[in-house]
Amino acid sequence: MQHLTKLLSVALVFLMLYSATSHANSNYKLGAGDTIRINVYNEEDLSMEYLVSSSGQIEYPYLGKLEVLGQTAEQLQQTITQGLEDDYLIDPKVSVNVVQYRMIYVNGEVAKPGGYAFQPGLTVEKAIALAGGFTERATKNKVMVRASKPSQSEEKDLKAIVGPGDIIIVKASFF
Fold first, then answer.
1. Torsion angle of C-alpha atoms 138, 143, 163, 51, degrees rounded to 10
2. pTM of the predicted model as reported, rounded to 2 decimal places
3. Which residues contact 164 (CB under 8 A, 6 or more apart)?
4. 31 touches 76 (CB < 8 A)
5. Could you give the C-alpha distances from 124 to 47, 79, 129, 142, 173, in angstroms and in order?
6. Which among 25, 110, 118, 125 could disulfide-bond with 158, CB atoms 3.0 to 4.6 Å apart, if both were Cys?
């Protein structure tokens, strides 16, 4: 009985983590630099990967140019399903997934400034750790984040959530 209780507890933790990740991904808005995978069940010619360009559009067979920018994967899935259902397939089974998120950038007084892959749930502190941590000259309590939308910088706490395309700037201290 005790093993069953432990097993159920572990299963509950994994379910909660999966649910939180799924919810974060379901709200994720697609943008330039994301790589998405479109799968249509039993239709190899309609299953493919795309790198979303700066135009925010993809060229999809039979449907032409589709606007991707600012849509969730679920919204794009519905658009493709409806488009294929109208004239081409009977009851198409479509899935859209983000294969790789667009980059975030960490600049300034960090060991390895540059671009890093965004991950849902990424904080300023974790992004700085990806960039090798603070240098000796870094101001550790004043980190600027320039959000991709809107394009303005603001001072953020190390626990603040980072969005895709954000630029993190670690300034140098004077002392």
1. -40
2. 0.71
3. 28, 31, 33, 34, 101, 102, 103, 104, 118, 148
4. no
5. 35, 34, 9, 11, 18
6. 125
